Amino acid sequence: MINFTQILLIMLLSTGYSWFFQQPEQQSKAAEHVYSVRQATSPPTINATWKKKFWNRADKTNLKNYMGDYPSHFPKTHVRVKYDKNNIYLIFRVKDNYVRAVTTRTNGPVFQDSCVEFFFTPGPDISRGYFNLETNCKGVFLFQYKDSNDKQAFVDLDDARQIEISHSLEENVENEIAEPTTWVIEYRIPFSILSKYMEVDVPGPGVQWRANFYKCADKTSHPHWLTWAPVDFPKPSFHRPEFFGWLNFK
User: Fold this and answer.
1) Could you give the angle at the alpha carbon of 159 between the alpha carbons of 60 and 165, nearest 5°?
2) CA angle, residues 60, 63, 64, in degrees to nearest 5
3) Is 70 exposed, middle or buried (0-12, 13-18, 19+ CB in 10 A)?
4) At what angle are helices 17-32 and 4-15 packed, to 10 degrees?
5) Pair 152, 145: CB distance under 8 Å
6) Which among 75, 145, 212, 224 is least buried, having the fewest CB atoms inside 10 angstroms?
């Protein structure tokens, strides 16, 4: 006669032993990469000021994961997010070294500089596509989208110019600054420009988006590729929406 223990063992083998024991860990990891986006009561002045009243109640998260080899320079990078009925607001603070920014034109290769990036699907279903807004430490940015038909292109410049961006770094960084340097990027993205390129779930209580935050510096003396939600891929590649975390709007 088969006893209860034998029945349980058969069930484990038939459903996948590793799945049975790894599933709670996977759920735990997913829960770690959910960001609660609080609603703003009034719009801020976009001035790259980390410590101001607008951001006091916003949750702060940091980028603890990396792609490629463990970097010799791992800058401490924090991000906060808020929204109102018309815009989403982000602010990044980076405690950095080896800071460099050569790109000066919109949609240039800002990822080669000291750069922070926001990739997001404006809803819970990544199959509709995603946007990527990449900004170097001097506030120069690249804004692209990839839609549900795999069309990848830059957002029209007239739309991109509606994004308001401010940066704290005043120094000339065409030549790399090796010593410790803290820099801040803050911006406002209007929802109205996003809906021209894909379906958008306008944020409100209960709405969810998929997203990831990144920090990179491809062409500096100490390159690195940092992520908020981990990206399980053998080489640095941020265009991986299947690994996006979650933005939960409150």
Assistant:
1) 35
2) 120
3) exposed
4) 60
5) yes
6) 145
Q: Report the mean per-residue pLDDT for the chain.
A: 90
Q: What whole-number distance in Å separates Cα of residue 248 and Cα of residue 201?
A: 12
pLDDT digits (tens, 9 = 90+) for 159-216: 999 999 999 999 999 999 999 999 999 999 999 999 999 999 999 999 999 999 999 9
The CATH class that applies to domain 35-249 reads mainly beta
What are the structural domain ranges in the chain? 35-249
- Written as one string, the DSSP assignment of 168-212 is ---S--SS-B-S-EEEEEEEEEEHHHHTTTS------TT-EEEEE
Determine how β-strand 245-249 pairs with β-strand 65-66.
unpaired
User: Mean of the pLDDT values across residues 216-230?
Assistant: 98
| Non-local CB neighbours of 235 within 8 Å, separated by 6+ positions | 67, 68
